[in-house]
Every structure is written in C-alpha cells, then in structure tokens.
Amino acid sequence: MTADNTTLDASAPRLEVDTLLDDPHTRIVVCCGSGGVGKTTTAAALGVRAAERGRRVVVLTIDPARRLAQSMGISELDNVPRQVKGVDESAGGELHAMMLDMKRTFDEIVEGHADADRARAILENPFYQSLSAGFAGTQEYMAMEKLGQLRANDEWDLIIVDTPPSRSALDFLDAPKRLGSFLDGKFIRVLMAPAKVGGRAGMKFLNVGMSMMTGTLSKLMGGQLLRDVQTFVAAMDTMFGGFRTRADATYRLLQAPGTAFLVVAAPERDALREAAYFVERLAAEQMPLAGLVLNRVHGSGASQLSAERALAAAEALTDQRAEDTHADAGTDAGDDTDAPAAARAENNLETGGIVDLDGGKAGSRTAGGPSPAAAEHVTPTSASAAQLAAGLLRLHAERMQVLARERRTRDRFTALHPEVPVAQVAALPGDVHDLAGLRAIGDRLALNLTETDDTDTDD
Amino acid sequence: MSRLHVVSGKGGTGKTTVAAALALALATEGRRTLLVEVEGRQGIAQLFETEALPYEERKIAVAPASDSGRRAGGEVHALAIDAERALLDYLQMFYKLGSAGRALKKLGAIDFATTIAPGLRDVLLTGKACEAVRRKDKNGRFVYDAVVMDAPPTGRITRFLNVNDEVAGLAKIGPIHNQAQAVMRVLKSPETAVHLVTLLEEMPVQETADGVEELRAAGIPVGGIVINMTRPALLDNGDLDIAARGARTGVAKALSQAGLGGARRGGLADRLIDPLLEQAREHAERVELERAEHAELTAIGLPTYELELLPEGVDLAGLYHLARDLRKQGPI
C-alpha cells in the first residue's frame, strides 16, 4: 500500500479500530506509550466501544485519574473487575473494569502457591512487605501477572490493558524477565546458602569465595537485613519455579496471535520518539503491533486558509482600523500601511465578484486612502466586527501553525515506520471524565480523521 | 536558599525542559550548576543537542548573561546517573571493594540491588545527587552552587524521595542504613526544594495538588509550581458574545474587505465564518478551563512561575529563552 509512495505525507496505512475490536480473534489489546499521552483514556474508550459493539470486555487500568475511575465505578481498589453501568448492552456486550492493586496481587500469588504457614512467614517478612508495596518493577510485573490471570479465567472475550507509567515505557516487558533471571541467578543461591544448609556443616559446601561474599553482603546490608532477605528467599524457594513459569507464560501470551499492541502517542516530538522506540522494541521481541494511536490531533474546518494569509489579512484589518482612526481624528495618513499582503494573496481565491483585482499593483498604491473596492465595504463594517474578524484570523493562524507542526512530527514518525497503521484522534477542547466523553473518544478513534477531513464532524 | 532543586511533574508536562531551563537560570555570575538525570532517558543530551551523556559530570553549557549584560553567566554541568555504576562507585569509595565489587556484579548481586531490591536503586540515585550537593573543593567551597534534578513524575516523586526512610527502616544498622539516613537529612532540610511542573489542564493540576499534599505529609520541602506551555488568550467570551449577537454579516464583510473572498451567502469569506467561529468557541472554552485551573493552582498557596509555549518546540535557543523568562520571575 505504501511501497510506491514517494511522499512521506499521509502514507501511513489507516488503523481500523473497529475491525480490530470486532475481530473475535482479538483477545488482548495492550496500550503502551510514554506518560501524559492519554493511554488510560484510550484504553477506557476502547473498552466502552468494544462493549457497545457486542463484546464482553474487561479493562485493566493501572493508575487512572480519579474522575475517570469514578465514572467507570472503580474508585475502590479491590483488585476485582466490576461491571461498568451505563454502557449500552443492546449488542450483547458488557464492560468490566478494574484498577490494579499490586500488593494485593502479589499477596494472592503467595497465598496461592505456598501452604498457610509459609505464606504467613512471607507476608510478614519486612523485605517482602517493601518489595510488594511497589518498588521498581513490581508494578510492571504485577500488571502482567494480573493480565495472565484474567486471560486464564477466560471469562471475557477481550482484555484491554493499560500499562504502568514507567520510567521507561518498556519496563513492563522487561520486568517478568528480570525477575526470572534473578531467580535463576547465582546470587540467589548465595543468599539462600546459609539459611538452607545452616550451621557450620553447611559451610563446607560453600567455596571460600562464596563465604567471603556473604560476609561482604552482611557488612554492606547489615546482618539483620541480610537475614530478612535470606528468610524471604528461603520461604519463596518453593514458589520460584511457579514464578518463572508464569513470567514465561505471560511473555508468550504477549507474543501470541490474539494479542494486539497499540502504541499511544501525542503528536509531539518526545512522545513520538518514544513511540518509534517502542515500535522497534516490539518488533525485536516479536510482539504483534496493531498500530499507533495518535491522540489530540488538531484539525481545522478552514484549512484552505493558510496561516500566512490569515495573519496578513488580520494585519490588514488592524491597519485599516488604525487608518480609519487617523482619518476620524483628522490626521494625515502619512504612513504607508495598507493591505498589500492580503491583497496580493488573493489571486488564487475564488473571487466572488467583490474583491480587489489589482492585487499585483497593490504595493505601488499610494498610502492613505483605502482601495476603491475596499472602500465600498469599509463603511458598513463596524469597528468591532473588524476587530473580531482580526481576532478570529489570528486564532486561525495559530491553529494552522499547530497543525503544520503536528504534521511534521507525525511525518517524521511515518517516514521511519511507514508500515505502522495510524489512527488519528481529533483533540477535544476539555478533559474526559465520563462515559459520554469516552464514547466521543471512541467515535473519533474509529473515525480516524485523515488530513483532508474536517474535525468538526460531531457537531 | 535551596541548593538541591528537584523538578517533577506529570508525564508530558515538560519537566526535563523546565529542569534544564532552571539549571541555566541559576547559573548566573560565574555560578556553577549541575543538572542530573536519573531515569536513563538521555533527555538532557537531546535538549542540549549533544551526544549521549556518560556517567560523568561534564560541562554542557555556558549560561547567558543578564539582559543588560552587566551580570555575567555561569556554567551548567550535567550528569546522567546510572544506578549500577553509582553502586559500584559507592562500594569502591567506601569499602575499597574493587575485586569484590566485580565479583558481586558477576553474581548478579548488583543487578539485584539496582533493579529488584526494594528502593535501593532510588537510594543510589538520590544519594548521588545529595553527594554532589554536599561536595566541596580544596578551599572548602561548594563545587556546585546548585544541583537541579530531573526527577521521576509526580505520581512517584514522594516515594522516590522518601525511599531512604523506608530503606533505613529495612536495614536497621550498617552502611546502607547510615547512607539512607544521611540522604534523608539533606532531602528534608531547607536545602532542598521540590518544584512541580504542570500544564493548565485538569489532570496535571490535580496531580500537582495531590503531589504537594503528599510531599508535605512526608516532610519534604516543596518549592514552587511551574506552569508550563502557557498560551495567550487571543479571544475571550466578550468577543464571542459579539459574534453570537449577529455580527456574522459584519465579520463576513471584514473578512472580505481583508481580501479573503466574497461576503455574500456562500461566498468564500462567508464560508470561512462557521469554522472560524467554531475554533473561537473551542478557544474560549479552553481559556475558561485554564482560568479555573489557574485558580486551583493559586489556591495551593505556593509561588508560581509561568513559561509560555514555544510554538516551534524547544530547541537550544528556546531553552535559553525559557531560562531568561524564569530569571525575570525572581528567585526560585
């Protein structure tokens, strides 16, 4: 589709959101991207849309804004999906939503994999308590763990996951692996050695290097912390196999055909740079990428009017007013302000019969009086209308500049990754925090405005 | 006056840019500032248009003189802190663990410490920044007049800074305990100020308010609020009222007069009016929203600083512009 495309512009294939959501083979949608690009909102909007199109959906969010969570009825953190009310279920779908409670998720793993005594020992261990309360990687690991659980339940036919606001957007891919490699590592054996074999007899099995190591560790961490860690590791010992298996299973689940990754970004340099990085990383990990969701894209219903012309026209109006004021005050209009720029620009406009046609000579007109054509219309044009028109034109120029900038940034991404389908979501003036707002976002996602479209399609 | 400036903010609010502008702004009259990055993104290098920063303090910019030219500029140095290297340095510095350090690394202990062990990573990152704050030269003067940290986002900042308390509780004795406590003493002293960057949008403002509350509850000093990417109000509701009261014909005539086509029904100027008015309505809605958010921020009762949106994005020139803007708004 893009093979013979020489321009970068608009060469990206369209991401058909509805096709993706309607496909019964799509079982997991993962929304990822850097912070502040609307990931959570996108995940929620996709959930509402998929449910209203007939699917049984659960949305797993990590850290939703308070009002968004309230609007979905998941303001309580109880780690269980809750049905969202107010969703149109006439197509046979349902929407459930839950907010991840990482400590609860971790506790549940422990409780499910260790006998009661051992589980209590782990849950009471100070080292475990800190680990589970959410330090580096825990949130990412637990999000993936919860995803695995939801998928295993097979209660929903579509799971939509929002990823944690990581220090790098990729952390959630690495966390399970990192935990796995730690659990397989030598270090854990060193840590476990004293607790496991115990006493002096056991020390014989350790070589000198290792005992020096535990000595060093004890010196660094303090004896009590080392003991806590050792007790924790020993108590977790029987669960490690399980952890490892689950981390691997989750990772494979993410690569499976029923999974679709959506990279979410805003049309800004940093967000799109992160998105490009993400696209490359997903490819390297053989994770199935469905496309890029580009949020908060601006459009204009008057895109035929360029920023330059709008500004020139606004200036012309302002100058005209200044001249009128001069004239009223009886001063001589001695300066050479006029509307030449605007006049010159009009040649390729449909004329409508009333415009000044001597645009080419406009610059040579003597200063002072308005051109005859303009004079006809100056009289009925009130000052306030002219001022308002100038304001509207300046605003439009600003909008067109935003559009151009967004387009450049997007084209840079498209040039690097022409294969990635893109869905552009028109910007809303305000924030979204109710189902109606999510529905509107869903509509815009599916509509996927291309650059020739107008934005104000929903009014 | 604070010497450790921690800059946080919701994702997407431009905290790296603000941190960099602040480091430039603070580097006046021969002062030297250190800008540190803790999240391994190389955002600073991108902003200053240089190659990726190594784990090494190096001069990255010469700060501008004052507008009048009477006050000379200073220097900005930068450092991307890498937790693993920081841990190895730290072991080397305090315990001369040269080979043992390498052995620990081989075993995966360093990896464990910097990625999985609760909070150690954060202890190392904040620890390194605090070390730079306290470092003195041979003459007993501080090496850096100020240290600016591009910190994790608001949602994690309190936990990030307060992690030392938690670690000190976990490791009740020993060097880790001592180090954690020493870092906490700096972070909770008036030497530190946490600044939160926000936009005039609902979610970032809400996060800012929550963040200030959390930081205060943790006893960490909060500095100011930086409102980033402000845009001028080009039109207000008054103008829209005029439009609503049927100035349509007048506006069409004005547009036509400015050379934008026919004002008649269906003429080019006439056809521009609806989309232009729609844009104006959206603009007015946004201005209204921004006013409300601004009022919320003011109600927090902290000093606020405003930085305007640079329409062409932030390049090096833009960064200096923002630094000058910050300076004009008084001490931060």
Furnish the topology, listing elements before pairings.
The complex is a heterodimer of chains A (about 450) and B (about 325).
Chain A: H1 17-22, E1 28-32, H2 39-52, E2 56-61, H3 66-72, E3 82-83, E4 94-99, H4 102-113, H5 116-124, H6 126-132, H7 138-153, E5 158-162, H8 171-184, H9 186-197, H10 199-203, H11 208-221, H12 223-255, E6 259-265, H13 269-284, E7 289-297, H14 307-328, H15 340-345, H16 372-378, H17 383-416, E8 422-426, H18 435-447
Helix pairs in contact in A: 2-18, 4-5, 4-7, 5-12, 7-8, 7-12, 8-12, 9-12, 11-12, 13-17, 14-17
Chain B: E1 4-9, H1 15-26, E2 32-37, H2 43-47, E3 58-62, E4 75-80, H3 83-95, H4 98-107, H5 109-116, H6 120-134, E5 146-150, H7 154-170, H8 175-187, E6 192-198, H9 202-217, E7 222-230, H10 237-244, H11 248-257, H12 268-300, E8 304-308, H13 316-328
Parallel strand pairs in B: 1-5, 1-6, 2-4, 2-5, 6-7, 7-8
Antiparallel strand pairs in B: 3-4
Molecular structure report:
The complex is a heterodimer of chains A (459) and B (332). In chain A, helix 13 links the parallel strand 6 and strand 7. Chain A is built from 18 helices and 8 strands. Chain A has an 8-stranded mixed sheet with strand order 3-4-2-5-1-6-7-8, sandwiched between helices. In chain A, helix 2 crosses helix 18 and helix 4 crosses helix 7. Among the domains of chain A are: 203 residues, Rossmann fold (3-Layer(aba) Sandwich); 89 residues, no CATH class. Chain A starts with 16 loop residues before the first helix and ends in a 12-residue tail after the last helix. Chain A has 459 residues and is of the alpha/beta class. Chain B is built from 13 helices and 8 strands. Chain B starts with a strand and ends with a helix. In chain B, strands 3-4-2-5-1-6-7-8 form an 8-stranded mixed sheet, sandwiched between helices. Chain B has 332 residues and is of the alpha/beta class. Chain B has 2 domains: 248 residues, P-loop containing nucleotide triphosphate hydrolases (Rossmann fold, 3-Layer(aba) Sandwich), CATH 3.40.50; 69 residues. Chain B is elongated and about 85 Å long. In chain B, helix 9 links the parallel strand 6 and strand 7. The interface between A and B is large, with 102 and 87 residues.
